[in-house]
Amino acid sequence: MENVKPKSSRQLHGRLKLGLHGKLAVPGDKSISHRGIMFGAISEGTTVLHHFLLAADCLSTLKAFQNLGVPITRDGQTVTVQGVGLHGLKKPNQALDMGNSGTTTRLIMGLLAGQSFQTKLIGDASLSKRPMKRVSEPLAEMGANIEVTDGHLPATITGSKLHAVDYHLKVASAQVKSALILAALQADGDSVLVEKQPTRNHTEKMLRAFGADIRTDPDDVTITVRPEPHLQGIDLNVPGDMSSAAFFMTAASMVPNSRIKLLNVGMNDTRTGLYEILKRMGGKVTVSNEQNAGEPTADLTIESADLKPITIGADEIPAVIDELPLVALLAAKANGVSRITGAGELRVKETDRIAAIVEEFQKLGIAIEELEDGFVIDGRKPWHVVDPHLDSHGDHRIGMVMAVAALLVDQPLTLAAADSINISYPEFFDDLDALIQR
Ligand SMILES: O=C(O)C1=C[C@@H](OP(=O)(O)O)[C@@H](O)[C@H](O)C1
Ligand SMILES: C=C(OP(=O)(O)O)C(=O)O
C-alpha cells in the first residue's frame, strides 16, 4: 500500500513562542516501581505501592511475578503485593515474557538463580539483542546455572544452591549489582560486592527498608549482603521519576519564556546527574519542598536560560545514564562545544543510543560528531531541518527527546514509532500538552 504511515507515527508540536508553563507531577519512578513488586513478592505480608508507574516495563515485572505465583492486585496507581517469602515463588507454567525491560530481566535472573525450579525468560526484539552475560557470568561464579543464547535472551535459569562471593563488578551497572544482591540473599554466607563506580542504590536502600542486612561502606562502592533475611512487606510512596522529569527540565530550560514546576521529583543523588549538569550549564532550577521518606524528593522550578557548553567524562555517567540524550540536546543550543565521553554503555540500551542520537540530530542539522563512547556537539551552529521524518528507533527515550527538540523547530516534524513512549511514560504527550500555552 502506498502513502500508509507507520501505525504510531505522530505529528510533533513545533516551535513554542509562549513557552511552557504550569505545574506537573511526573509519574512514579521506574526503577523503584520494578523493585517494589520484586521485593514485595519475596517478603512476608503485604506491600502497598502508591504512585506505581503504570508503564509497559513495570507491567512486565508485575505480570512476571503474578506468573511466579504472587498475588498482585492494582487499583489505579496503587498496587498491592501479597508476599510469598524468599522461598515461596512457584514454577511458572510458561516462559516469562520480559517485554522490553532490561531491569526486569537482569534482576529476575539474580532472584531466580537461587530458587528450586527452572524458568525460561524471553523478551522482545530489542531486549533480545542486549547483553546478558554481564549477569549470567558473575552469577555463575556463585554457582548459578543460567544458559543464555549467544549471550542474549532467551535464557534458561535452573535454580541452584548459591555460594557467597567476593566480587568486583566489571561494568558500572545497577542492574548487574542488583542481580548479584538478589542472588546473595540466597547464598551460603556473606557476599561482598565492589562496584567500579557508584550506581543507583535503590536496591540496597529498599531492601534495607524491607528488613535486609545490607551494608554499604563509606566508600559507597563496597556492599556486604547477609543471606536469608526476614523481609517484611511495607507501604511505599514511589517518588516522581527524575528520568521522566528530565524531559521537562530540558524543555523548559531551552524553550524561551518558560517557567514550570515539577512536583515530588525523586532526588536520590545517584540519579540527579541531569540536575547537576543543567545547573553547571547555567540552567535556572530552584529546589523547594524537600522531603525525605526513604528516598529524598523535592519540587523543582525551572525557567528558560542561556546555556553554556559542558564537558562530561566517565565519572559522571552513571548518575545521568538515561538522561544523556537530553544532555546532548541541551548541548545543541549551548554557546560553545560540549564533549561527552565515557558513555559507551549507551550503545547497549533499548537501541544504540549514540548512533540513534547522531542520526536523529543530524536530521535537524545539529552539529554533532559521533565518538565510540559519546558525542561532541557544537551548539553555536544554527539548526536547519534536513529531514522532517524523525524516528524513535523503537526507543522510548529517543522518541521523547526528539519531541522536546521539535519544540525548537519551525517546520512540521513527524515521529515514527512514537508509541515506544509507553515503555516508561505513556502520558508523556498529554503532560507536554498541558504545559503548552495556546
Ligand atoms: O537498575 C535500574 O533500575 C536501571 C539501571 C540502569 O541500567 P544499567 O544498570 O544497565 O546501567 C538504567 O539505564 C535503567 O534504565 C534502569
Ligand atoms: C535503559 C532503560 O531501561 P531498561 O534497561 O530497564 O530496559 C531505560 O529506561 O532507559
UniProtKB/TrEMBL annotation:
Q: Name the active site residues.
A: D322 (proton acceptor)
Q: What family classification does the UniProt entry report for this protein? A: Belongs to the EPSP synthase family.
Enolpyruvate transferase domain boundaries:
20-432
Q: Provide the primary localization.
A: cytoplasm
Q: Where does 3-phosphoshikimate bind?
A: K30, S31, R35, S173, Q175, D322, K349
For this protein, the record's InterPro entries field holds: Enolpyruvate_Tfrase_dom, Enolpyruvate_Tfrase_sf, EPSP_synthase, EPSP_synthase_CS, RNA3'P_cycl/enolpyr_Trfase_a/b
In the UniProt record, does the keyword Zinc-finger occur? no
Q: What are the protein's GO molecular function terms? A: 3-phosphoshikimate 1-carboxyvinyltransferase activity
Tell whether Magnesium is among the UniProt keywords.
no
Assigned EC number: 2.5.1.19
Query: Partners and quaternary state?
Result: Monomer.
* Source domain of life: Bacteria
Chain sites annotated for binding phosphoenolpyruvate = K30, G102, R130, Q175, R353, R397
Name the pathway: Metabolic intermediate biosynthesis; chorismate biosynthesis; chorismate from D-erythrose 4-phosphate and phosphoenolpyruvate: step 6/7
Origin species: Lentilactobacillus kefiri DSM 20587 = JCM 5818
Protein name listed in UniProt: 3-phosphoshikimate 1-carboxyvinyltransferase
According to UniProt, the reaction catalysed is: 3-phosphoshikimate + phosphoenolpyruvate = 5-O-(1-carboxyvinyl)-3-phosphoshikimate + phosphate
Q: What class of enzyme is it?
A: transferase
> What function does the entry list?
Catalyzes the transfer of the enolpyruvyl moiety of phosphoenolpyruvate (PEP) to the 5-hydroxyl of shikimate-3-phosphate (S3P) to produce enolpyruvyl shikimate-3-phosphate and inorganic phosphate.
Pfam families registered for this protein in UniProt: EPSP_synthase
Q: Where in the cell is it found?
A: Cytoplasm
Record key words, sorted: Amino-acid biosynthesis, Aromatic amino acid biosynthesis, Cytoplasm, Transferase
Q: Name one GO biological process term.
A: aromatic amino acid family biosynthetic process
Q: What gene codes for this chain?
A: aroA
Gene Ontology cellular-component terms listed: cytoplasm
